[in-house]
């Protein structure tokens, strides 16, 4: 069995809770990192910060890392390689810190490390990109605002959006692009410039084409999966728009490749009753929303059970509404929220968001109690 420590890379870059967001972003940009572990003075893992947290929280660059970091999710260096891959799949993250038995940080394993191992071990599927890509692609029009791009990314749990102009692919925009530009409006880091936009409001209102990378690197739907994996490693990109006769038909990412190979050993018991949703696109959107929140909550605590029930109170579209009940059981507590809205997706998002906030509050309370107990002992 291959152990995590055999695949992981050294975590040469770390942060402390008292470091600033500006420092985190500067390091991410200069080192090309998406995920940075946060450690204590003794080297124990205490949190994780990524571009997603920076984009979600939107705090001042002078704020402390402790205000944006996620609670510490990790794998053990002696775990089987498949355990790390399963965690990356479930949490939908770019990388996971690796710790020893004392929770001291010893390294980090990323999606790129996983794909490199699968490539070298000849374990990638032999099919075409069309068999593993996410389709249809979630895109954004070139003239839509940066604020809209941010909302679409966070809403759909994606880190890249193909930018479309005149029905054709103009370029691509990523979470990294948005986070960097938004924070540069507050604080100049390095030699890179925001352009002629000087405030966050101006950047958020600007057309997304102004911050997108163009032209985008693309792949064809008939390309072999192996070629795409090699391209990801050589270009250091996490994903590409997939084209067919010049038209965007999907997106393929490192997550899609891992998903196509790995059989997650432990399935989460999710019960979703959505029979009242007649439109297939609504069903897909709700399933995607649930999946995104499962990943977010799983980074904080272990989910034992989750139920999402959607009921139509009366005919939607004629003044009717939907009621959404969400129940989540974790290894610490259980939570239940009910929301009503004409749009079932809005009601579901509000319910899941409230539960996530309650879980974070519970975790913060436990962390405060532990800190006080430690101070009393000292």
Task: Summarize the structure in words.
With 378 residues, this protein is of the alpha/beta class. The chain folds into three domains: 4-120, CBS-domain (Roll), CATH 3.10.580; 129-261, CBS-domain; 270-377, 2-Layer Sandwich (Double Stranded RNA Binding Domain), CATH 3.30.160. 38% of the residues lie in helices and 22% in strands. The protein has twelve helices and 15 strands. It has helices at 4-7, 21-31, 51-57, 81-91, 111-120, 146-156, 175-184, 200-205, 225-235, 254-261, 280-298, 344-377; strands at residues 35-39, 45-50, 75-76, 95-99, 105-110, 140-141, 160-165, 168-174, 219-220, 239-244, 247-253, 270-273, 303-312, 322-330, 334-341. A hairpin with a 5-residue loop joins β1 (35-39) and β2 (45-50). α5 crosses α10 (254-261). The longest helix is centred in the C-terminal third of the chain and has 34 residues, at 344-377. 35% of the residues are buried. Residues 187-197 and 264-268 have low confidence and may be disordered.
Observed structural traits:
single chain; 378 residues; alpha/beta; CBS-domain; Double Stranded RNA Binding Domain; 3-stranded mixed beta sheet; 15 strands; 22% strand; globular
Shape: globular
Which regions contain 5 or more consecutive residues with pLDDT less than 50? 187-197, 264-268
What proportion strand? 15-25%
Series of H and E elements:
HHEEHEHEEHEHEEHHEHEEHEHEEEH
The percentage helix is: 25-40%
CATH class of the largest domain: Alpha Beta
What gap, in angstroms, lies between the N and C termini? 42 Å
Please give the count of helices.
Answer: 12
* Gyration radius, in Å: 21 Å
Q: In the CATH hierarchy, what is the superfamily of the largest domain? A: CBS-domain
Could you give a short account of the major beta sheet? 4 strands, mixed
Query: Main sheet: which strands, in order across?
Result: 12-13-14-15
């Amino acid at each position: 069995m291959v152990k995590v420590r055999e695949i992981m890379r050294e975590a040469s870059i770390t942060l402390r809770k008292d470091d600033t967001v500006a420092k985190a972003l500067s390091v991410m940009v200069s080192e090309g990192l998406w995920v940075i572990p946060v450690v204590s003075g003794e080297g124990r893992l205490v949190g994780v910060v990524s571009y997603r947290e920076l984009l979600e929280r939107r705090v001042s660059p002078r704020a402390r890392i402790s205000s944006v970091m996620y609670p510490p999710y990790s794998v053990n260096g002696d775990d089987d390689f498949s355990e790390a891959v399963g965690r990356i799949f479930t949490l939908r993250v770019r990388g996971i810190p690796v710790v020893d038995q004392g929770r001291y940080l010893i390294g980090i394993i990323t999606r790129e490390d996983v794909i490199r191992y699968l490539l070298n071990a000849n374990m990638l599927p032999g099919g075409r990109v069309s068999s593993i890509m996410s389709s249809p692609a979630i895109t954004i029009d070139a003239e839509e605002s940066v604020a809209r791009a941010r909302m679409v990314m966070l809403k759909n749990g994606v880190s890249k959006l193909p930018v479309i102009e005149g029905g054709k692919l103009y370029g691509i925009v990523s979470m990294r692009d948005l986070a960097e530009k938004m924070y540069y409006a507050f604080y100049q880091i390095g030699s890179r410039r925001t352009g002629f936009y000087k405030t966050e409001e101006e950047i958020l209102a600007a057309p997304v084409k102004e911050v997108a990378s163009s032209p985008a690197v693309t792949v064809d739907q008939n390309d072999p999966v192996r070629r795409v994996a090699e391209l990801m490693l050589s270009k250091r990109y996490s994903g590409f728009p997939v084209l067919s006769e010049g038209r965007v038909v999907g997106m393929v990412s490192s997550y899609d490749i891992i998903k196509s190979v790995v059989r997650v050993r432990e399935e989460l018991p999710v019960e979703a009753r959505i029979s009242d949703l007649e439109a297939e696109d609504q069903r897909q959107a709700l399933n995607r929303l649930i999946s995104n929140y499962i990943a977010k909550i799983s980074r904080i605590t272990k989910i034992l059970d989750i139920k999402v029930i959607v009921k139509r109170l009366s005919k939607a579209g004629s003044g009717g509404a939907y009621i959404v009940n969400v129940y989540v059981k974790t290894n610490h507590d259980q939570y239940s929220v009910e929301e009503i809205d004409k749009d079932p997706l809005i009601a579901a998002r509000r319910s899941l968001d409230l539960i996530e906030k309650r879980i974070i509050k519970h975790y913060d309370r436990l962390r405060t109690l532990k800190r006080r107990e430690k101070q009393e002992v000292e």
